[in-house]
Specification:
The protein is mostly helical. It has helices at about 5-10, 15-35, 45-65, 75-85, 100-110, 120-125, 130-150, 160-175, 180, 185-195, 200-205, 205-220, 225-235, 240-255, 265-275, 285-305, 305-315, and strands at about 125, 320.
Length: about 325
């Protein structure tokens, strides 16, 4: 349950200002490390530039998940997005490169959400030469433990996908025909996809995000969702409860609607600064090498089984190249 979860206790915050302060503190921490080692801090990224780089790679994360073969459940993308958001809430892109963290977040989410793919199948979705895929295997496996530490080993993510499904089922039983309610699904699911790119997962319970998605969908198709909200609260709530909930829905809509549109030229400038800083990469330790060797046996068997499928997908342009993840 969300209300007794680590997500609510450790990863749900009171305001966007609190998120901003945490990100600024992460930027300040890396500056202090550079100053302590006698390095020049004038060329480090600003908090705004860090946020821009994070948003860029978050978009790449979503693209990778959408194009993944075999098709990836949306719960995997939701968990990976939450992991990515959590990491850069208290850490700098100048210390942990977002491209590496992005891929590791998705692979970790595949495991947690029980989406069964081997590491070889996973990197098979990166269009690259075989040696580059081998390097991607090394990087992902060697960064898993570090990602766990950055997340404080809090891996369970309560996303709004299941609450939305529950709301749709409840609407069908309470108010309207199944066909009529199903017209809400498309727009509500698109709204949730957009919410994954926002800070909504760090600010609101998943049930409120799901209700905001339903509200948005109702407004889009011209269906009255307000009466459903009133009916839900009619027995156990009062006018104050309804007002409070509607205010929360409006706050969710504001956060989701304010996802910034990135300026390509500014993003490239920020990425160039990041490259110049020379982000620290995790060293390849012996434990990671042993894990890779053990995983390769499993991966080769599964990889052979999926070789034709992967090759076909690559020829169709369904895979992402390493350069496209830059």
């Amino acid at each position: 349950m969300f209300y007794s979860s680590t997500q609510r206790k450790f990863w749900t915050f009171s305001s966007e200002d609190e998120l901003r302060k945490l990100r600024c503190q992460a930027n300040q921490d890396i500056r202090q490390k550079h100053e302590a080692s006698g390095k020049d801090c004038s060329k480090l990224l600003t908090p705004d530039e860090e946020l821009m780089v994070c948003q860029y790679y978050h978009n790449r994360l979503r693209e990778f998940c959408v194009k993944f073969q075999p098709p990836m459940p949306k719960s995997v993308m939701a968990s990976a997005s939450s992991y990515f958001k959590r990491v850069y809430l208290q850490n700098s892109v100048m210390e942990h490169h977002p491209k590496i963290i992005m891929l590791t977040c998705v692979y970790m989410a595949c495991k947690v959400e029980e989406f069964n793919v081997s590491i070889m199948q996973f990197v098979g979705n990166i269009r690259a030469r075989s040696e580059e895929r081998e390097r991607a295997v090394d990087i992902i496996l060697n960064n898993e433990l570090q990602l766990l530490q950055l997340l404080n080993f809090h891996l369970t993510v309560h996303n709004p996908i299941r609450p939305l499904e529950g709301l749709l089922i409840d609407m069908k039983t309470r108010h309207r025909s199944a066909e009529e309610v199903e017209t809400l699904r498309r727009w509500a699911e698109e709204y949730l996809d957009k919410s994954f790119l926002s800070d909504a997962c760090l600010l609101f319970p998943p049930s409120q995000v799901a209700l905001a998605a339903l509200w948005h969908s109702g407004n889009t198709v011209g269906m009255d969702v307000l009466s459903y909200v009133h009916h839900c609260l009619g027995k156990n709530g009062d006018g104050a409860d309804q007002t409070l909930l509607m205010n929360q829905i409006k706050k969710v809509q504001e956060v989701v609607g304010n996802v910034p549109q990135l300026d390509a030229s500014l993003v490239e400038e920020a990425k160039a600064k990041l490259a110049a800083v020379g982000s620290l990469e995790v060293t390849h330790d012996s434990q990671g090498t042993k894990r890779k060797q053990g995983t390769e046996q499993q991966g080769k068997q599964a990889g052979k089984k999926k070789a034709k499928q992967a090759k076909s997908a690559q020829e169709d342009g369904g895979l992402l190249s390493l350069s496209s993840l830059e």
